[in-house]
């Protein structure tokens, strides 16, 4: 396994997927190249977040739902509060997906 495909559902991942779909539909690039670009995107996002993000965040909230499937934890919190560098950010509902980084490095 190279990397998780979690970031494809982010805003930038959806925009990239839409752009690649349009390029494939127009015949500008092949479907194989589009898949390779998405795979590189997955790897680059994982590498960038692992190496460049150094800030810490804590959060509290009401745990609405949790699940563990295929070594991926998914938590849905309601009325959560995130704290980063003494800044508080309240959120009505948030979905947190957590994966084991050791699995990627195999």
UniProtKB/TrEMBL annotation:
Belongs to the TFIIA subunit 2 family. TFIIA is a component of the transcription machinery of RNA polymerase II and plays an important role in transcriptional activation. It comes from the Eukaryota. The keyword Transcription applies. Residues 60-101 form the Transcription initiation factor IIA gamma subunit C-terminal domain. Residues 3-49 form the Transcription initiation factor IIA gamma subunit N-terminal domain. GO terms for biological process: RNA polymerase II preinitiation complex assembly. TFIIA is a heterodimer of the large unprocessed subunit 1 and a small subunit gamma. It was originally believed to be a heterotrimer of an alpha, a beta and a gamma subunit. Its main location: nucleus. One of its GO terms (cellular component) is transcription factor TFIIA complex. This is Transcription initiation factor IIA subunit 2. It is found in: Nucleus. InterPro entries: TFIIA_a-hlx, TFIIA_b-brl, TFIIA_gsu, TFIIA_gsu_C, TFIIA_gsu_N. GO terms for molecular function: RNA polymerase II general transcription initiation factor activity; TBP-class protein binding. Keywords: Nucleus, Transcription, Transcription regulation.
């Amino acid at each position: 396994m190279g990397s998780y495909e979690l970031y494809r559902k982010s805003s930038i991942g959806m925009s990239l997927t839409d752009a690649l779909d349009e390029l494939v539909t127009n015949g500008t690039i092949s479907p194989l190249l589009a898949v390779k670009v998405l795979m590189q995107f997955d790897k680059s996002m994982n590498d960038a977040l692992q190496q460049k993000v150094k800030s810490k965040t804590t959060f509290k909230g009401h745990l609405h739902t949790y699940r563990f499937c295929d070594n991926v934890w998914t938590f849905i919190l309601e009325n959560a509060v995130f704290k980063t560098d003494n800044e508080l950010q309240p959120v009505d509902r948030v979905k947190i997906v957590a994966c084991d980084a050791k699995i990627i490095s195999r």
